[in-house]
Amino acid sequence: MSEGRGSSAKRGAAPAANPAAPTANPAAPAANLGAKSGGAWDAYRGAGVDIDAGERAVELMRASVAATRRPEVIGGLGGFASAMALPPGMREPVLVSSTDGVGTKIAIALALGRFDTVGRDLVAMCADDLVCAGAEPLFFLDYVAVGRVFPERVAAIVGSVADGCRLAGCSLIGGETAEHPGLMEPEEFDLAGFCVGVVERDRLLDGTAARAGDALIGIGASGLHSNGFSLVRRIVADAGLDLGEGYADLVSRILGPETTPEPEMAQLSLGEVLLTPTLIYSQAILGLRRGLNEAGSDLHGVAHITGGGLPGNVPRVLPEGLSARLYPSVWPMPSIMRLIGALGGLSEAELRSTFNGGLGMVCVVPADAAKTAISSLEEDGLAAWQVGEVVPMDALGARYSES
Fold it and tell me: Does any domain span residue 31?
């Protein structure tokens, strides 16, 4: 696995050495070109780039990265590039790719000094896009841009990426940390990620399989996930809220004492609730499809509910001429969205079109397979509901509607 950590260094899978390659002359004098002290290295450090800190970060993250290794990975940490074989036994494999970032949710992490969760958001944004095409995530690469390398912080960030990769079932096969003194403030950082998966060509989900009468199965979200944080941060700032305030007290104060937060949120601060990692659904979705196949059915589509909310994403997995009709009363709106809506003057319909509205994914299945789908998802610990159906567009006059 290639690893570039430091000024602009990579990590990746180094291919096995060639046993026929010539070896160095043991009698030749050793060159000192790699010494990390003296004119050039000191000048680089003086410009704000710390090679030693980058290498320290690599050592701190090594175990986390290694724990994500799949059997198809070729080589180990330290190469210029990464190598991975396709899973054996595939007839006509199609590679599927996705890239994304975490966005301004990073500002919440910086404010709290918490760097061990945002990598999971990064993996979720990429891996769960792949599964919408029916693909199994194979490998992931991250890019961490920092103003200054703080080894423990970089290792925590990459460790959280590795956590996400384990949940998604893919290998963290490579990545880079780039130190940008003069361009970014020392405390600043940003994240981007790239994921590749594979699917048999005849099992590719391409938005053409859904039929009128199909059921829409919504899968519960853990909260805001990773979208809309520019708006969230502005609303929180305008309201003068303290990220350290107890979330339960804040919910009671803003939404009324009769409103209680989700049990897992009750002891957290506002900032911790905002930083709750995005759920990673890919393995549950793949398992759902296997279960449907075993029951003689199949998955007709999957929508990842990110930017644009439900109206902007569910129609993307339907053929022309079909529409999605959803019933919002069927599933709960997370308390954090209701809180943001109350503070920002947003209706629940606006929350569903700006954020995920409480659904991280929406699956399209034949109507007679809805109960099987829900049972499969619940067995994986996910909340799921039949939230709507696919109908002819001429019945609604729009690609999306709510009733």
Answer: no
Residues 198 and 226 reside in one and the same domain: no
Q: Are residues 234 and 173 in the same domain?
A: no
Asked whether residue 28 carries a pLDDT value surpassing 70, the answer given is no
Residue 370 sits at φ, ψ, to 5 deg, of: -60, -45
Q: Report how many helices (DSSP H) and strands (DSSP E) the chain contains, helices first.
A: 14, 15
Q: What is the pTM of this model?
A: 0.90
Are 301 and 367 contacting, i.e. CB atoms less than 8 angstroms apart? no
- Which pLDDT value is given to residue 16? 45
Count of domains in the chain? 2
| 127 three-class SS | helix
Taken in order 333, 309, 219, 367, is the CA torsion positive or negative? positive
Domain match, 305 and 387 both = yes
| Backbone dihedral region for residue 60 (phi beyond 0: left; psi -120 to 50: alpha; all else: beta) | alpha
Query: Which H or E run contains 190?
Result: strand 189-200
d(C-alpha 232, C-alpha 235), whole Å: 5
Please check whether residue 376 lies inside any domain of the structure: yes
Q: How confident is the model at residue 56 (pLDDT cuts 50, 70, 90)?
A: confident
Torsion of CA 223, 104, 192, 11, to 10 degrees: -100
Phi/psi of residue 93, nearest 5 degrees = -70, 140
Pairwise CA distance, residues 259 & 378, whole Å: 26
Q: At what angle do helices 118-130 and 105-112 cross, to 10 degrees?
A: 160
Domain identity same for 149 and 78: yes
38 forms bridges with which residues in the sheet? Answer: none
Looking at 150, 171, 203, the residue that finishes a domain is 203
Q: In this model, does residue 38 exceed pLDDT 60?
A: no
| Residue 275 in this model has a pLDDT that exceeds 90 | yes
Residue 60's domain comprises: 2-11+49-203
What's the confidence (pLDDT) of residue 52?
A: 79
Q: What is the CATH number of the domain that holds 94?
A: 3.30.1330.10
User: Which pLDDT does position 10 carry in this prediction?
Assistant: 58
Q: For residues 27 and 382, what is the distance between their CA atoms, to the nearest angstrom? A: 64
Amino acid at 14: A
Q: Tell me, yes or no, whether 373 and 293 share the same domain.
A: yes
Q: What is the DSSP letter of 390?
A: E
